[in-house]
Amino acid sequence: MRVLAVDPAVRNTGYAVLEGDPRKPTVLAYDVITIPQSVPQSAALSAIRTHLAHVIAKHQPDEVAVEGIIYVQSHRTAITMGAARAAALIAAADHGLPVYEYAPRKIKMAVVGKGTADKAQVAFMVRALLGLAETPPADAADALAIGLAHLQASDPIRAKLLDRHLI
User: What residues are labeled active site?
Assistant: First the structure.
């Protein structure tokens, strides 16, 4: 299985493409789509959708995994984050790809073993688990973590353990 994982945000959307077995996945690509503050939000959302469409065309994923809605105290932040998620979901829908959503706590539990892990812990574990030569940028590391969580969730035994918080 090949999965495109997306950590959506209007200015810095992380993405990763992983393939294979959840115990030994292969990283095909990862990066951050960075949109300058000077670009209007509507153009930023279009750029995210277009960039992800190119990634989909190049890597031909079978599925897309995204971080689910998180609790935020600001309505404005929630709306902005929702718009970035929508751009990613539309890119997936345009290519007929199924989309799976994962709560941030579940992603952190799958990668770090602790649902309250911080970004540095997630990045460190992503690097270690995937055998990367360097620690990826935070948003790309988050996308890699989402991809790992998705691969684990697709393995019935690991998914059951994850749901019980045993791993």
Answer: 7, 67, 139
Distance of CA 124 to the CA centre of its chain: 16
CA 131 from centroid of its chain's CA atoms: 18
Contacts of 3 (CB under 8 A, 6+ apart): 17, 18, 19, 61, 62, 63, 64, 65, 147, 150, 151
Q: Decide the pairing of beta strands 2-7 and 99-102.
A: unpaired
**Strand (E) or helix (H) holding 145:** helix 138-153
Q: Enter the tokens of residue 96.
A: 């007929």
Contacts of 166 (CB under 8 A, 6+ apart): none
Fold designation for 2-163 = Nucleotidyltransferase; domain 5 (3.30.420)
Element (H, E) at 139: helix 138-153
Which of the four pLDDT bands, split at 50, 70 and 90, describes residue 70?
Answer: confident
**Full DSSP string of 37-94:** TTS-HHHHHHHHHHHHHHHHHHH--SEEEEE-----S-HHHHHHHHHHHHHHHHHHHH
Q: How far apart are CA 63 and CA 86, in angstroms?
A: 16
- Residue range 94-132, pLDDT digits in tens: 999 999 999 999 999 999 999 999 999 999 999 999 999
For helices 104-111 and 156-163, angle between their N-to-C axes, nearest 10 degrees: 110
